[in-house]
Write a structure and sequence with these properties.
Layout lengths: L2 H16 L6 H10 L5 E4 L11 H5 L6 E2 L2 E3 L5 E3 L3 H9 L5 E2 L9 E6 L2 E10 L2 E5 L5 E4 L11 E5 L4 H11 L4 E2 L8
Antiparallel strand pairs: 1-9, 2-11, 3-4, 5-10, 6-7, 6-10, 7-8, 8-9
Amino acid sequence: MPMSQRVLRQRLQNIISEERGKLHETKVVQLALQCHGAFIEPLHFLSQKLQAFNCFMYVLNLVDRVEPNVFAQGAKKIGWFINASFFTKLCDAGTMSETSIDQLEPNDLVVYYNGQKKVHVGRYIAPNLVESKWGLGPLFRHGLWDVPKSYGDAVKYFKAPEQAEVDALIKRELPLLQLAPLHKLPA
């Protein structure tokens, strides 16, 4: 990884750690423009609640479908019902098959790891191009490694699971959640 990209990833980490939500969108884009070879652009995603979904919900087509989607983890922190742990259960259930970089197709999943732990996921768009939701912030289209440092140091690629399998796991593992029917949201 070139030094400039390491610096970019650390600075992206600093921005998302210091600022929440849409506030960091402008700083992220400005930083990417200063870093040779970096590509990060915000996407305008039509959702009833732009801030109320995460990367796992986005790639699993659960935006605006899961209620409630967050829970309180203390006075100032929230947790997501659909999170890395749920995503790992979905993987462990055999619903996703790993694939190689040379066999990637649009909408396959790019899973970012810290060690063995899955921490972030995006949709593959084209070579070195991914779409992913950054925490409470915006949805971005970005280069494969143009992500905050905390999003991991390794990636693996998977075929997306069938929606019926995702929905069935939610009903089985999180039975108190309400799951609305799937509707295609334009990006």
